[in-house]
Structure formats: structure tokens, C-alpha cells
From TrEMBL:
GO biological process, one term: steroid metabolic process
Protein's UniProt name: Dehydrogenase/reductase (SDR family) member 9
A molecular function GO annotation: oxidoreductase activity
Keyword ATP-binding: no
Length: 319
């Protein structure tokens, strides 16, 4: 009996592996628009797709990012200056894309641009701290998608959203998890809305990777800034040595968890764009597959115990 079940499982994975190998034809006629291409996953994906023969339209936040990417890629790649929080900038980019793709439509948009600070306990923050990140990570994704959706429908193409394992579990305070939960929700409703039009909507959920988003120096200096502006009574609750303990914990955690192999994420993005049969969801990284996603399926009472075990407690903690 066990052998029979084992055989079925093996057959399923072998079948899935073969099915997922097949790639779409005519890459050189397919346009892919990627946001946040200055650094990190977006930058690597732009270069990778360019090498594979796609026509990449790279949205860059800075002029420096545009120049460096152009130098590193073929003449097929074009760049557009893009701030995903600015409607005017999105419209200008969309007009340029319309002119480029013509009647073929746009094969894919990859919503990759994102930021990760401020991240801190919620009682350290004010509402303004939430707005900028939600504007970039969530409203930016929606605005860019809506601006090019007619072109994607024309090509029966794809929307690829970069969420996070923190769109499934929410262990840190601040707007990051909120924004990524929102991306997951937008992704899921759009996937169903677009299915009748032959448009596929795919979601990538990376674990912890070494990029600017997880730059420990940037994150720590931002936490220090937030600490410095706290009223004395809140600082007293957390204790005068709280920041030092957080620094030590973060250093240990980041050394243990950060994965330097960005191709694990970029390969998932590339598969979502170019496979004939892409997956609805991709979890990239061992921590995503074996820790964060299983954790997201656990009852809250168990997940909370596991997460609170290693967290730095305030001085007045009753736990
Ligand atoms: N690294 C991870 O562990 C991890 C895990 C899960 C999910 N993610 C997600 O992956 C995506 C890519 O992040 P990454 O890790 O590759 O970090 P990254 O290197 O910082 O890439 C993010 C890019 O977005 C750009 N950007 C920031 N604000 C923008 C705006 N308003 N408009 C347009 N572009 C903007 C940044 O430009 P500048 O560099 O010029 O600021 C940067 O090029 C993000 O959505 C992030 O949340 C990352």
C-alpha cells in the first residue's frame, strides 16, 4: 500500500517536472515590463531575461540605475524612469510602453519595486510611517498593473507580483507585512478576474535574501532613528538596553537566514514569465519552503509561541 502511494507521488512530481519544462515560443517578440530594476531581484531579472532574448522594458527609479543597466545589457533592453508612487510617472511610462509594443500588446508586467523601512514594533510608529511604504509596496503594484492591464489582455499575457513570506505571516510590526498581505489579496482577486481573458496572474513569495531590502545597516539605523524619537515612557517600557539586545539578535538572525543566491528568486520569476504552464505561487528559498510557509498554516496559538520564543522582550514583559 505504502509503495503504491509512494509510486503515485513520484509519478505526480515527475509529470509536473516535465509539464513545467515547456517554454513559450517567440521570446524576441515578447515585451516584459519590470519595476524597480535599479538593484536586487529586478536588476538581475532584467539582465537574465535580456540574455534569454526577451524585449525588456526596465522601470528604474534613478537615472544612475538606467545608465548602469543599459551598459550591462543588449540594445533590445529599454529603460523608463519610474516612481510607482507618482501617477504622472506611471502614465509617462505606460505611454512609452504603448508606443513600443504596438498591436502585439505587453507579454508581462513584473511588480517588483519595494521598500522595507520603517519596520519596528507598532507602538513605536505613527500613521505617517505606514503611508509611504503602503504607497510603494501595495498601491504602486495596483496602479502599475491597472495602467498596463489593457495591453496585457491584448497579448493574453501575465501579471507577476512579488509578494513575500511576510504576506503569509506577520512577525514584525510596521507596514511591510500589511503591504505584502495586500499584494497577496490583490493578486488572488486579479487571478480570478483575469482567468476568462486568458491572462495569468502569478505570485512569488521569497524568503530572506541578501539585497538592499534586508540591508542590516539601513534597517538598524532606521530603528535607531525611531527609538530616538520615542517618548520617555515608551523607552522605559522597553528598557535602556533594548536597542543593544535587538542589534545582537538581528545580527545573529541575519547571518543565519540571509541567502545570497538571488537566482533562486529570479528563476521563479523567469518561470512565471516564460513557462507554458506556470505555477500560481512560487516559494523561493529554503526558509520560505520549510519554515515560513508551514508556519503560516499552523494555528495562531502555535505560530505565536514559535515566533515569540526568540523575540527580544520589553523590560516590562509579562511573558
Ligand atoms: N530581499 C528579500 O529578502 C525579499 C524577500 C521577500 C520579498 N522581497 C521583495 O522583492 C522586491 C525586490 O526587492 P529586493 O530585495 O530586490 O530589494 P532592492 O534591491 O531594494 O529592490 C527594490 C527596488 O525598488 C526600487 N524602488 C524603491 N522605491 C521605488 C519607487 N517609489 N518607485 C520605483 N521603484 C522603487 C529601488 O530603487 P532604489 O534602489 O533606487 O531605492 C530598488 O531598485 C520587493 O518588492 C521586496 O519587498 C524581497
Amino acid at each position: 500500500m505504502f509503495l503504491y502511494i509512494f509510486g503515485l507521488v513520484v509519478f505526480y512530481y515527475v509529470y509536473r517536472w516535465f509539464r513545467e519544462l515547456k517554454r513559450v515560443p517567440n521570446k524576441s517578440e515578447k515585451y516584459v515590463y519590470i519595476t524597480g530594476c535599479d538593484t536586487g531581484f529586478g536588476n538581475l531579472l532584467a539582465k537574465h531575461l535580456d540574455t534569454l532574448g526577451f524585449c525588456v522594458i526596465a522601470g528604474c527609479y534613478t537615472e544612475k540605475g538606467e545608465d548602469e543597466l543599459k551598459k550591462a545589457c543588449s540594445s533590445r533592453l529599454c529603460t523608463v524612469q519610474l516612481d510607482v508612487t507618482d501617477n504622472e510617472s506611471i502614465k509617462k511610462a505606460t505611454d512609452a510602453i504603448k508606443a513600443l509594443v504596438g498591436d502585439r500588446g505587453l507579454w508581462a508586467v513584473v511588480n517588483n519595486a519595494g521598500v522595507s523601512i520603517p519596520s519596528a514594533p507598532n507602538d513605536w510608529l505613527v500613521i505617517e510611517d505606514f503611508k509611504h511604504m503602503i504607497n510603494v509596496n501595495l498601491l504602486g503594484v495596483i496602479a502599475v498593473t491597472l495602467s498596463v492591464l489593457p495591453l496585457i489582455k491584448k497579448a493574453k499575457g501575465r501579471v507577476v507580483n512579488i509578494a513575500s513570506v511576510f504576506g503569509r505571516v506577520s512577525p514584525v510590526g510596521g507596514p511591510y507585512c500589511i503591504s505584502k498581505y495586500g499584494v497577496e489579496a490583490f493578486n488572488d482577486s486579479l487571478r480570478m478576474n483575469m482567468a476568462p481573458f486568458g491572462v495569468k496572474v502569478l505570485c512569488i513569495e521569497p524568503g530572506f535574501f541578501k539585497t538592499s531590502v534586508t540591508d542590516i545597516n539601513l534597517i538598524q539605523s532606521n530603528i535607531k532613528k525611531l527609538w530616538d524619537r520615542l517618548p520617555q515612557d515608551v523607552r522605559d517600557d522597553y528598557g535602556s538596553d533594548y536597542m543593544d539586545r535587538v542589534k545582537v539578535m538581528m545580527k545573529q538572525m541575519f547571518v543565519k537566514m540571509l541567502d545570497g543566491d538571488l537566482m533562486k528568486v529570479v528563476s521563479c520569476m523567469e518561470h512565471a514569465i516564460s513557462a507554458v504552464h506556470p505555477r500560481s505561487r512560487y516559494s523561493a528559498g529554503w526558509d520560505a519552503k520549510f519554515f515560513w510557509l508551514p508556519l503560516s498554516y499552523m494555528p495562531s496559538c502555535i505560530a505565536d509561541v514559535l515566533l515569540l520564543k526568540d523575540v527580544i522582550k520589553p523590560k516590562v514583559s509579562i511573558l
